[in-house]
Every structure is written in structure tokens, then in C-alpha cells.
Amino acid sequence: MVTTIDPEAERKEILRYYRRLLRHAKPFLKDNDAKIIKKAFNTSVEAHKDMRRKSGEPYIYHPLAVAQIAVEEIGLGTTSIVAALLHDVVEDTDMEIADVEREFGPSVARIIEGLTKISGVFDYGSSQQAENFRKMLLTLSDDVRVILVKLADRLHNMRTLDSMPRHKQLKIASETMYLYAPLAHRLGLYAIKSELEDLYLKYTDTETYKDISNKIRQTRSSRSKFIKDFISPIEEELRKYGFKFNIKGRPKSIHSILKKIKKQNITFDEIYDLFAIRIILDVPLENEKAACWQVYSIITDFYQPNPDRLRDWVNTPKANGYESLHTTVMSKSGQWVEVQIRTKRMDEIAERGYAAHWKYKTDSSHGGESGLEMWINKVRDMLENNTANALEFMDEFRKNLFVEEVFVFTPKGELIILPDKATALDFAFEIHSQIGLQCLGAKVNQKLVPLSYRLKNGDQVEILTSQKQKPNEEWLQYVVTSKARSRIKDALREERKNRSEQGKAMLDRRLEQLQVPDTQVNMNRLLAFFNVPSLQDLHYRIATGHVDIKNIKEVIFTAASEKGTSMLDLKSFDKEVQKIRGVNSDMLVIGEDTSNMAYKVAACCNPIPGDDVFGFQTEDDGIEIHRTNCLRGIELMSNYGNRIIKAKWTDQKELAFLAGIRIKGTDRVGLVNDLTKVISASLRVNMRSITIDSNDGIFEGNIMVFVNDTSHLEKLIQRMSRVNGVLTVERFD
User: What is the pLDDT, as a whole number, of residue 576?
Assistant: First the structure.
């Protein structure tokens, strides 16, 4: 189908988007701002004039949409609007960063520089995505707006993912889930984080996404009535006390509903807090805390609270600046309801995260560094002291994104905030690197504890040190903070280097005794004889006694031992071949006679024919097949997009695949017998294992069976659910 393009209509549409952008930006525009935005808009229109997006629409729609998100949904200002409008110009046209700087100043240039992908050749085994991500984060230390504009860019890409080919959808969605949703969360952009997670689901697990969104839609009217009844007595009381307020109810995101269903093993109908009710107060800064607690006491006069579900982020805000008071109360209809109490200022910080946090920073009486700034400083520290490769770095960075916190105190009563599961050793490094490196143990609440002791909220920690103490490999298992990890790795590297130098001196002396020259050939013979990958390793092993210097004898250097050397060369030869050859096929078809390409089914998600799958080229085992919604798959697609292969099953029935089925129901005599009959008799399915637990008349069982494909499994599930007493039957990973 050929669509005709109407240039005039498109021009009007572009101007409409542009005017909308200016309308939203108007409240904060200063003297020259409108002119600069207009100039950026014209530059971008000109630069992208002949380009179209995959959907067929003019490319300029994208930069305009990104700028709109930056203003309307993140609350950014002029510099960010200009950067958003120009963010693809350097990558897609002849314009250079220097031109941007000349025309629009250093701030805009720096942001765009951070957003421009690194081009060029990468080492085999490194990841282009990881390198680009690292580059973008390096700019974070100068200007956090780089990340915020990137999030706006990513959100618009996810919203318009429909027009992309399937393998691109999977790669972009997975990368989003792996990095950008956690980043949005860490920067306090909850609305964006939730939307990114939901869109990820929409493209990787479409069925589940549709199912849950339909259920949310169907329950909308009953929900509205429930909220109305629930809040009417509270509204009356708040007015009586003279509060200015606004109340809204919002359903949970689809992703968080699914997470709850999986985590607690319940159905959609069993989720009690499908939505939260938010009470937003309009009060001056100095009365905020008192007002929130007063409203809490009004609510709990009407409804019984659940004491385990009180969360006070008003007195101790989250690290990303989030402040709010949460309580879960029992409604008159016997349903638990989460109520969030906050002020207008807190609500804006919760919705817009970092950007709003800056807005209030200037006139805030809170003073000092916020948790968010402390986090950004930590990231900065991590970036500046990181010697790992980009992939290790990404892994470290992700570990620092989704973390709950633990609040502990120094002996003088100073509060230190560490990530959840942090240990006494993490605490030592948090105080000072030197204290960490010499840490012997700790006293927690006056009692002696080991380095690996996991800190609890409210612990008071005193670190014991010794000049003689040195870090060892085991320490890496005791720490969770990246600061501690990178300092320990540096110290171990330094120690290894020193020991290697000692080992080299010992080897040189030995070779001199044996009158063997220090040539490359002789070194290769040594490496092959002791089966060690590098000379530095050999030196280190000699120094630590793992290789006994006395075992280095003349016989090693005679021609008879040549076979060892060639073995080594063979390995590197193989790697070279693999590097050059790569995988040439565009689509991997699984199930036919695929003997020409080794593949194996990934153990993490056990895909079976009928599942949506992709192939991943491993470094040694050929191809690994994953389900598209596999959690490990997210990581692979994010880091190694270039090693992902499109894959599909053929219609072959001879193969049997392992699948897991979970069953719940009411217990009765003969039930297991009935179930096994269905499995073996009716469908010729082989069963590998069955475990059934029964408790107070309710049973729960896991059955592992071999099936041909998803429709085969579906039939089996349907037949099992008809067995008398069975309530739910579902597949599990």
C-alpha cells in the first residue's frame, strides 16, 4: 500500500507540535530563550528534512516529541529543550559538536556529546552498547541532564516501537528494562519508570500484557465507585480541619501487578492493593511533616491501619529524594487500600524526580546534600575510579540502581546510608578507603562481629583496623557497594603485580642457574608445560609457591616438549577464526536437521516449540535458545545486541522438551492417581518428576513433563484443570 504524502499537512502538523512545545515551556522562558529554541528547531528541521522514521512520518516528529517529554513530563528547562531538539543532529548529519557549541553554547554541546553514540571498532568480547552507556554516564558527572534527555528519547522510542521490526523491538525493549527503567527509578521518575516497564511487557509478553490491561479496564467503574465511597468521610473531615487538598486514585502499573502475581503466586483477583489513593496537601514547607501525620491520624480514625505496612519517607526520604507517608488500611468492604499522604512539593518530586528536586533545592530549608546528590557523587566516584571493562562496569552500575537502603550510625552518632545487604566491610570503605583496606573486624552495638556481618537498620558500627591487614579475594564476596569492590580489586591487582615481580626475579635467577636464555620460545615452552595462560600468571604462581621453582628443569626446554607450544597456538587460532567468521545466518530455524549449527536450549527459561524465542551466539557452545521474555535474555540483548539471532521453531513433532506445571487444589484420596492418568494415558506425555505437598486439605504440586510444543502443553493443562478438585493449573519456568 503506497501512502501519499501531503507536504502542506505535514508542515502544519510540525508547527502544531512546535507551538505546543512553546506553550508548555512559556512559564519559565527568560529573555532570549524563545529565540534560542526557535533557532534549534529550525536547525533540526533543516538537518532532518529528507529523513523519515520507520513509521513513514517526518523524522522531526521525534526530536519534537523528546523535547515535549523533557518539558512536560520531566520538567526540564531551555538548555534541555535545545539539546533534545538537536540530539540526533550530530549523529545523522554533517554537523559537528564544535558547530553545536559555537551556535548554542558549551552546555548544550556537552549534553549532545554525551548522547552521541561511539562509532568505530570494538574489541571482540566487549559490547558496543556497554561502551556507549559508559560514555553517557561519564557525562553524568558533569551534567545530569544528559541522562534525563536520554530517558525522554528512550520513552518516545518505546512509545513508537510498533513500527520497528520484531528483533529490534526485543533488543530495544530489553535494553530499556535492563538499564533505563532502573535509571528512571533511581532518579525518582516513577511515572516514566512504570511506563517503560509496561511497554517492555507489551512487546515481550504481549498476551499477559493484554490480559492484565483488559482486567484493569473491566474493573474501572467498580473501582471508581469504591474510591468515591472510601474517600467521602475523609474529605469531609479534612475540610472541617481547614486543609487545602486534592485526592486521586491510581491503579498499579501492569508490570507491578504481574510482578506481584508471580512473586506471591496469586491471581489477579487476589491482589488487594490494585490501586493506591493519594492525598496531596497544599501546606507551607515548615508545616509539612506535622500536616502529613495529622492527616494520617484522621484516616486511621475511620479505617483500621495495618501496622506492618506503615512507611515513613517523610522523616527519612529515599535516596532518590522521594518523600511520602504510606499506610495500608482496611476499608468497610473488607479490602486493603494503600493510602499515600504527601504535600504538593513532595508530589512534584515523586512525579518528576530529579528535575523537581533541583527546583526546590534553591528555596529548600532542608540544606545539606540530598540522598540523590550523594548517589550521583557515588556514581561519579565509581566512574572516576573504575578500571574494569565496560561490561563489568555496567553490571556494577546496575547493582547500584535498584537498591533498598539500610540506615546505620558511626560511634559519634553520624547517620550513614548504605545499600541493603551491606556489610561491616562496606561500612569501613564508606568511612575511608584506607580504613577499609586495613579493616580487621567491627563492633556492632558494642559486640564483636566479622567483616561479613550484614548491617541492620539502627546498628551503631565501630571499625577495628590493623597496619598488618591486607585484602584478599574472599573480601569481594563480603561487599555490595561498588566503592568497596573497586578499592579491593585495585589493592588485589597491586598486590598481584608486586608478587609477580618477585616471581619474575626468582625465575630469572633459576634460568641463569640452568643457563637457559630468556627467549620467547623458551617462555612459551614454560607456559605450555605448566598450563598457565600468561607470563604474569606464571610469575605470580612461582612467588606464591603454586609452581615450585625446583620443577623448572632443563628437560622442559628441549625440542621433545614442543607439543605444548602448539596447543597454545591452536587455542588462539580458534579464537581468531571465530572472530572473523562470526555467524552468517540471518534466521536460525530450530528443529530441522540443524546438525550444521550446534544449538542448545537455555536452562534459565526452558523454551519449547511455540514459544517466542531468539538465539544467542555464545563464545564456545554455538547457539543458545531463549524465550523472548526470559530475564537473562534481557541482559544478553542489552549487552550483546550484535550476537542476537532471530530464531523460530519448525513444525516438528518428534522432539520432546521439558516444561514445568504448577497445580493447586483441594486434597482428596486418589487425586495424584487421576492426575498421572491424564498425563500418561491421554496424551502420551512422559513425566520426569512430580512433587505434591498437602496442608490442611489444600494441595500444591509441581510436575515436570516432556512435551512437543506449546499447544501440546496447553491441551495437557486444559485436561488437568478438569480433574475433580483441581483449582489452578499453570506453566512455570
Answer: 39
Phi/psi at 208 (nearest 5 deg)? Answer: -60, -40
User: Active-site residue 197, yes or no?
Assistant: no
- Write the DSSP symbol of residue 600: E
Location of C-alpha cell 620467547: 520
Catalytic residue, candidates 6, 46, 92, 518? 92
The residues near 597 (Cβ < 8 Å, ≥ 6 apart) are 585, 588, 622, 623
How many Å is the Cα radius of gyration of the chain? 31
| Cut 0.70: pTM above it | no
Q: Which residues have CB under 8 Å from 585's CB, separation 6+?
A: 597, 645
Question: In angstroms, rounded to a whole number, what is the distance separating the alpha carbons of residues 527 and 565?
Answer: 8
d(CA 2, CA 679): 52
Residue 155 and residue 195 in contact, taking contact as beta carbons nearer than 8 Å: yes
Tens-place pLDDT, residues 609-661? 777 788 887 776 578 888 877 777 777 777 776 677 777 776 555 566 778 88
Q: Which residue has the higher pLDDT, 453 or 178?
A: 453
**pLDDT tens sequence across 111-123:** 888 777 654 444 4
Residue 188 backbone zone (phi > 0: left; psi -120 to 50: alpha; other: beta): left
Q: How many whole angstroms separate alpha carbon 192 and alpha carbon 197?
A: 9
DSSP class per residue in 386-421: --S-HHHHHHHHHHTTS--EEEEE-TT--EEEEETT
Q: Does residue 91 have an active-site annotation?
A: yes
d(CA 525, CA 149) in angstroms, rounded, equals 55
Instruction: Identify the weakest region by mean pLDDT among 183-187, 426-430, 721-725.
Output: 183-187
Which residue in 31, 33, 88, 91 is the catalytic one? 91
Cell numbers standing for residue 626: 531463549
Q: Report pLDDT for 136.
A: 64
CA distance to 63, 93, 151, 418, 658, per residue, from 18 (Å): 10, 21, 20, 44, 55
